[in-house]
Amino acid sequence: MASSKTTQDHEEIRRWAEERRAHPACVKGTGGEGDIGMLRLDFPGYSGEESLQHISWEDWFDKFDERNLALLFQEETA
What we know:
The protein is an alpha+beta fold and 78 residues long. The protein has 2 helices and 5 strands.
């Protein structure tokens, strides 16, 4: 059984995402003026093309920290 990990470490998150060719993104239409909205990681081959907008890692981590979020992830899936 694969075990899950939680992290707030920017380097670990970015490494994990880039190893899987994921890009930092936000959900279109979920933010207001000056707010990028809901954060996501956009993985190739999934249905995010119409609903997600790529953003910079800097903007993604700024909002991630502002909201005191953590990433729940697995190094390997079951």
